[in-house]
C-alpha cells in the first residue's frame, strides 16, 4: 500500500503479487487473500487501469461476499470506481447503492471514503458525470 501511495506502482504490483502467491498457498487465510486482491484493485484504479482492476475485483468478489459486511462494501465501492472510469454509469450506481450505507455505518459519515462515495452516488443518481 505504501508503494502505491508513493506512486511506485510497478513496485507495488510486484509486492502484491508476491503476497498473493503466499496466500494462495494458505487457503485458510480468506480475509488476507481478499485484502490483497482488493488492494490490488485499488492499485490499478489509482493507476488509471480499470480493466486490470476489474480482474482483481472479480477474484475478490466471492471472498468479500463470503466475509460479508464491510468487505463486500469495499469491493462494491471499488467496482463502482472501475465502472465510472469505463463510463458504465448504471453499474456504478448499483454498486454505490449497496456500498454507501455499509461504508457509512462502519466508517462514519465524515470519513473521506464515505464522503467521496456519497458524492459519486449523488452524481450517478442524477445522471451527471463527475
Characterize the structure shown.
This protein has 130 residues and is mostly helical. It has one domain (2-125): Alpha Horseshoe (Serine Threonine Protein Phosphatase 5, Tetratricopeptide repeat), CATH 1.25.40. The chain has 7 helices and no strands. It has helices spanning 2-5, 9-24, 30-46, 50-67, 69-85, 89-107, 112-125. Helix 3 packs antiparallel against helix 4 (50-67) and helix 4 runs antiparallel to helix 5. The radius of gyration is 14 Å and the shape is globular. The mean pLDDT is 90.
Total beta strand runs: 0
Written as H for each helix and E for each strand, in order along the chain, the element string is HHHHHHH
* Relevant CATH superfamily: Tetratricopeptide repeat domain
Sheet-strand content, in percent, reads under 5%
Intertermini distance: 26 Å
- Say what oligomer this is: single chain
Specify the CATH architecture.
Alpha Horseshoe
SS element count, helices: 7
CATH topology: Serine Threonine Protein Phosphatase 5, Tetratricopeptide repeat
Task: Categorize the overall geometry.
Answer: globular
Mean pLDDT: 90
- Rg from C-alpha positions? 14 Å
Roughly how much helix do the residues carry, as a percent range? over 70%
Low-confidence stretches: none
**Assigned CATH class:** Mainly Alpha
Supply the key terms.
mainly alpha, single chain, Serine Threonine Protein Phosphatase 5, Tetratricopeptide repeat
